[in-house]
Specification:
five-stranded mixed sheet; about 20% strand; Cobalt-precorrin-4 Transmethylase, domain 1; five-stranded parallel sheet; Methyltransferase, Cobalt-precorrin-4 Transmethylase, Domain 2; 19 helices; 4 domains; alpha/beta; 22 strands
Length: about 500
């Protein structure tokens, strides 16, 4: 079988800027080869059996040389696999995508180029700077500030660039910023020409520094402003004062850690990111099959015999219906048990299977379910509680006292997450965070088992009282607790604490 390679542009950082085709390529990939500027969220789109290979390159720190990357994408494609080479921004705009495409062509490997949104236009837009504007210019020039270091002479014509009308944008030029500005001024550009630098554009780590060609180099040194950054030169920079939209959001500037499983992190991460936070996904647990898979399967096949099915987590819902539909092709085989969910997140997951929740408590904890069932006549009613291994038995004990006949269905177990494909552990250890979020006692337990240094001033955010109790026992009582024990409640509590 002949393989194929897709050279995919991942955009500048915001995962929402990935193209529809780019995502489709990741979802069908057998091998995903990604670099340091790709969003961690892209990894969740890959299938469970996709081989993920980090080949990140940033400044002088190379996980794999360009020649090594060229050899790798050819080798994997020639094995008959669908390979996605995921690059930051657009692969054909100073991304060496042309070189990789040439290697594939020379090896006779079929390939496609999937363009991405370039930071050369997205970075300024997220900084509130339009690269074209009829009050300022009708021309855009893009050049690189980081040429091949082996070249004896620069291929950039600074005399031409200095006199070129309109907006000028350059990428990868922070290290050479002073010499670039000096060359432009030397060849006729005015020292008072506005310039803006935006680093980590389109992400929660975005920072923008403005000045002039004559002052910006000193400002960069004073503010310890580092790459990766995009620079914009021209009158359009002054528009930022009016249309700076991204850096004014309520959680902008806050680095927040999400410790949920990699599969579940998305909802919380997206909500926080939409409010401007710099989100670090550091999963501390993962979900696996229960120890006794045969017993679980047998329980699922008898689900239709119960009066009630009780779900206390989205994971339990997913594992239950995966097992159910592997045995029964028809949803009507479930019969007509009433359905109880511990909270809206669990009810939402149930609804994905076109099933309505009959009982939802006012408080989204086990005690809330107990209160809700107390209003029902459940004496001699049969119930199956779909749950994780090693969870609190308070719900079962209370339902039995109310006269119900309760069977346990252990659908999954949580274990420590051992993989860290995005380097989140090292990032947290080196750069710290402002807030760490916990959505269960297990996420808290396994996070602190990692023994990571706790950043000064970092706050703990809990989804509810059960998680808060676990955190307190671990010596990290939360400063932030959701009033409603769900993801929107947690997000609201964080926004309130940061306002």
């Amino acid at each position: 079988m002949k393989g194929k390679c897709y050279l995919v542009g991942g955009g500048p950082g915001d995962p929402g800027l990935m193209t529809v085709k780019g995502r489709a390529c990741i979802e069908k990939a057998d091998v995903l080869i990604y670099d340091a500027l790709s969003s961690p969220e892209f990894l969740r789109w890959a299938s469970a059996d996709c081989e993920k290979i980090y080949v990140g390159k940033r400044a002088k720190d190379h996980a794999l040389s360009q020649e090594g990357i060229n050899d790798l994408i050819v080798e994997k494609s020639q094995e008959g696999k669908i390979v996605v080479r995921l690059k930051g921004g657009d692969p054909m705009i100073f991304g060496r995508g042309g070189e990789e495409a040439a290697e594939l062509a020379a090896a006779g490997v079929p390939f496609e180029i999937v363009p991405g949104i370039s930071s050369s236009i997205a970075g300024p837009a997220y900084a509130g700077i339009p690269v074209t504007h009829r009050d300022h210019c009708s021309q855009l020039t893009i050049f690189t500030g980081h040429e091949d270091p082996t070249k004896e002479e620069s291929s950039l014509d600074y005399a031409h660039l200095a006199k070129t009308p309109g907006t000028r944008v350059f990428l990868m030029g922070v290290a050479r910023l002073r010499s670039i500005c000096e060359e432009l001024v030397k060849h006729g550009a005015g020292e008072e020409t506005p310039i803006a630098l935006t680093r980590w554009a389109t992400t929660g780590r975005q920072r923008t520094l403005t000045g002039t060609l004559g002052t910006i180099a000193d400002l960069v040194e004073k503010n310890n402003f580092k790459s990766p950054a995009v620079a914009v030169i021209g009158g359009v920079v002054t528009e930022r004062e009016k249309i700076n939209w991204f850096e004014t959001r309520p959680l902008f500037g806050k680095r927040i850690v999400v410790t949920r499983t990699r599969e579940q992190a998305g909802e919380l991460s997206v909500a926080l990111r939409d409010l401007g936070a710099d989100v670090v996904e550091l999963p501390t647990i993962r979900v696996e099959h229960p120890e006794n898979r045969l017993e679980f399967a047998e329980s699922v096949t008898h689900a239709h015999t119960y009066d009630w099915l009780i779900f206390t987590s989205p994971n339990g819902v997913e594992k239950f219906f995966e097992a159910f539909f592997s045995v029964f092709p028809d949803a009507r085989s479930l019969g007509s048990p009433r359905i109880a969910a511990i909270g809206p997140g669990t009810a939402k997951k149930i609804a994905e299977y076109r099933i309505t929740t009959d009982l939802l408590p006012e408080r989204f904890v086990a005690e809330g379910l107990i209160e809700a069932f107390a209003k029902e006549d459940i004496e001699n009613q049969t119930m199956m509680w779909v749950k994780a291994e090693d969870t609190r038995e308070v719900l079962m004990d209370a339902l039995v006292k109310q006269g119900a006949i309760v069977d346990l269905c252990e659908a999954y177990r949580t274990v420590p997450e051992t993989e860290d494909p995005t380097g989140a552990v090292a990032q947290f250890s080196e750069e710290g965070a402002d807030i760490v979020t916990f959505t269960s006692a297990s996420t808290a337990k396994h996070f602190f088992n990692l023994g990571l240094p706790w950043p000064e001033g970092c706050q703990v955010a809990s989804i509810g009282p059960v998680t808060s109790s676990a955190l307190s026992k671990l010596g990290h009582a939360p400063r932030i607790e959701a009033k409603k024990s769900d993801i929107p409640g947690l997000v609201a509590a964080i926004v309130s604490a940061c306002s």
